[in-house]
Amino acid sequence: MLALMKRNITLYFRNRVGILMSLLGALISFFVYIFFLQNNLVSSWGHINNIKPLLDAWMIGGILAIVGITTAFAVMGQLVTDRTEDVYWDFEMTSLTPLKISLSYFGSTAFVSFIMQLVVFGIMVGYFRWQDNLVITANKLLPLLLVTIINTIFSTIFSLIIVEFINTHTIYSRVATIIGTLVGFVVATYMPLGVLSSGAQRFIKLFPGSYIAASYRDLLTKHYIASDFPQGMHTEFIKFLGIKISIGKHLLTFSEDLYLVLGASLLGLILFIVINHLKYKRN
């Protein structure tokens, strides 16, 4: 099982084009923010102290949520390849059980998703530190690591479920393109949550990745909001940018965001087990 995990990880990192494509959604968000969105937001909220690093921290949270999903789905491309080339069925003829094979793909996908989030986080923090004097305090690192782990679990399960319904590389490539583009919208990164219609906001709130982005943003922006934010504008601002997401009139806390994502991940895992069992039973 560990050998199969190592194989999948090695194949992913050998494919430079695949790595770039898996980061496409994050790269699009990053450049849209730098060249277009940042100036518009700064002009709208320019009276707030340290608005640039605050907005940078907000963007980092959204991009990390994107990276977890797109890289997880990219690694799952190997599962599609193995099925279309009948390699997957060769694994079943070994001592590996279907459960161990699935765990191997799960483990390799989770590993890559986790590592890529850390790499992108380091790059963005370094850039915004140099450009806008962004500060990430040491006491945030452990909570950020926790969010990254939960994002990895959710993203891996989400990708596994989708790939279960994909049988060809053509379909996989099209779905990967859609996910890479769409995920930036559904975690409210291309546009702040507050500028979207009520229908679009309701749709975004149905996607667990939105709460991962909110968790990242809550952690990363807390220092600036606590120290520099004018009285009376706090709730309006955090709802507008999706730093906290409201359900009805209740603003979810950091812990509630994570519990919601973990609950969705558990339901997703149960769904995957059922789908995989039925599919294997048919075969």
From TrEMBL:
InterPro entries in the cross-refs: Nod_factor_ABC_transporter
Transmembrane regions: 20-37, 57-81, 102-129, 141-163, 175-193, 258-278
UniProt keyword list: Membrane, Transmembrane, Transmembrane helix
Protein name: ABC transporter permease
Top-level taxon in the UniProt lineage: Bacteria
Organism of derivation: Limosilactobacillus agrestis
